[in-house]
Amino acid sequence: MKLWVYHTPEQVPAGELPDWAVVVDVLRATTTMAVALGAGATAVQVFADLDELMRVSQHWPAEQRLRVGERGGKVVSGFDLGNSPVDCTPERVKGRRLFMSTTNGTRALTRVQAAPQVLTCALVNRQAVVELLQKQQPERVWVVASGWEGAFSLEDTVCAGALLAGLGHLATTGNDEAVSALALFEQWQGRLLELLQRASHGQRLLGLGQAEDLRFCAQLDCLTTVPRQSEPGVLTALT
Ligand code: 3SL
Question: Does residue 184 sit in helix, strand or coil?
Fold first, then answer.
């Protein structure tokens, strides 16, 4: 198995696809997806565009849907939730489909949605994703970090490194970004919360009063749910 790491969806090579794509947005979209599906949400449907989300979700029964919208770290006005994993309690999400649009994470998913297999990964479900990769052994895997508006992010890169560390000798690195992601994880693995607090998007979220979200997202391997694309743009739980 060979892993390539891309720091942003824009870096992903045009006109090519891997066997598997693993999308990462530790703060906070892919953490929230793992929590919501683990808590009984029926699916998470992602949209790059808010108007399209409203258009599609209005055909869904109101009691079976939740609209999740985030821009700039804040809840989109009129939406039910704003991409905080701690809001996704079973009481709130069980039996419902989440219609979700976030600044970067949902865009990264849209970029690779044509790949034969698409998963999402965060620190919280890293080991579950490692185990799935160990079992299925795809040849070419792209780890696509969401970054922030086209720029590198520490939190997504450390998660890509955690994935490589978990795979150990089963995976070889396909590009320099993969080598440096592994080095970042090796350097910070005992201080993940501190790294998230230093990251620019971590700082942005702290400024918005989201310290609890950072603590939650910094936990390694505490969930067993793997969100997997079951149809284009729709993720369901693999447990
Ligand atoms: O960029 C994204 O997709 C979001 O996860 C950002 S936030 O953490 O919800 O602000």
Answer: helix
25 lines ligand 1 (CB under 6 A): yes
Q: Where are the alpha helices (DSSP H) in 11-104?
A: 29-38, 50-57, 90-93
Q: Find, among 10, 39, 1, the residue nearest to 153 by Cα.
A: 10
Collect all residues with Cβ–Cβ distance below 8 Å to 69 and sequence separation of at least 6.
Answer: 50, 53, 75, 76, 78, 79, 81, 82, 83, 100, 101, 102
Ligand 1 pocket, 102 CB below 6 A? yes
Q: What is the DSSP letter of 41?
A: -
Tens digits of residue pLDDT in 154-198: 999 999 999 999 999 999 999 999 999 999 999 999 999 999 999
pTM score, whole prediction = 0.97
Structure-token pair, residue 53: 């989300």
Cβ atoms of residues 227 and 120 within 8 Å: yes
Contact 164/178 with Cβ under 8 angstroms?
A: yes
**Gap from CA of 6 to ligand 1 centroid (Å):** 18
For residue 112, pLDDT over 90 is answered with yes
Q: Which residues contact 58 (CB under 8 A, 6 or more apart)?
A: none
